[in-house]
């Protein structure tokens, strides 16, 4: 059932044309927030996506195609949100990419890209969103970190470094705004069946000559005791909670939703 808890608020969700970001955007729209989408994909499909979400939930939607590795484009996107809706009340930093290689083999350009998109982009969106949030004395910053923001995995040095950094940025942002109506928290998902993870499953199936179903089970068994994927809908529901009055004193948390991964 549609709620109006976030009516009149505007949420900007980076990397929201698919996967976790889309789940976040839909959940926030369901509770009345206007949504600024961002991400890559076919222009016509994206237009249909944000138009459909707007109609479904009776909210206003818009889209900006900022490349999250480019500070000037991030600045343009934040200005776009201000021009369109008067500012960003809820910022969800979700954009992310992955690359897997051992440290000594890690291509420098891939390291730079992972850090730029997974970590530095969140610094830029946050610094640009905070002045307006301070003026209104209300804001919610939600950083999509990862179980890899809490623990490591071999071969993922850039991703793990970026996600640990994002958890650190979350804590500092929360502390700097502790006496205000602005909160900042991180959500740390385990395996979610996104296009990024599906590629890892397909790669494993091809590499080991096994079925996609078997590769999926093996991937989960390695890390996630529940043996089940986290869903974008579950993460979206947590984001809604973090935007609610019940979460006014949830500040600087790194909230793991990982089927028991980091409990081990």
UniProtKB/TrEMBL annotation:
Gene3D superfamilies: NAD(P)-binding Rossmann-like Domain. Pfam families: adh_short_C2. One of its GO terms (molecular function) is 3-hydroxybutyrate dehydrogenase activity. GO terms for biological process: monocarboxylic acid metabolic process. Belongs to the short-chain dehydrogenases/reductases (SDR) family. PANTHER family: 3-OXOACYL-(ACYL-CARRIER-PROTEIN) REDUCTASE, 3-OXOACYL-[ACYL-CARRIER-PROTEIN] REDUCTASE FABG. This is 3-hydroxybutyrate dehydrogenase.
